[in-house]
Amino acid sequence: MDSVFRTPQVHVIGEIIGASGFASTKVYARWRMNVGHDWRLLSGIDNGETFYDCTEHVEDISVFEHPLDLHYACKTISGWPKFDVEVWTVDTHGRHSIAGYGCLTLPMSPGQYELDVLLWRPEGGIYEKLTSFFLSANPELVHKNMVISGNDRFGLQTISTGKVMLRVGVIVKDFNLHGVLM
User: What does UniProt give as the signal peptide span (predicted)?
Assistant: First the structure.
């Protein structure tokens, strides 16, 4: 237990405020925090799904107010936490369709932040565009790890769809004991 107290630690506290830029009145988000292999979750839940906002939008914002509280220990700063999110819409027939994917590396400096995760989704060919228009069924990624790795997205035709707003506080501990100034 003593070794955990001298290990560099990162605590992320905040909330997923909501999303904007979507025409649907029923919107929800699936999220996860991705970290490197040398990171260990000490407390909290590193993935989840928000409730969906089914109210009339105020200023084009779907409100989630989903809490985040994660505490990590790490051996290296490589693999710093990345917030990975998918926003989904539900149409009047109860069909769920992807509205956007996004990823954001959390700030490395301690402090309070309000962040926007910009979202995109695959555009697809003519068949997928027609399906999207008539059935509200947008093309989805087969391999979700493409969201995190920009190299895999090379050549993929995408469109911008909206954004997810975060409010997070980043707290770092004991990095200075290992020669890392934050």
Answer: none
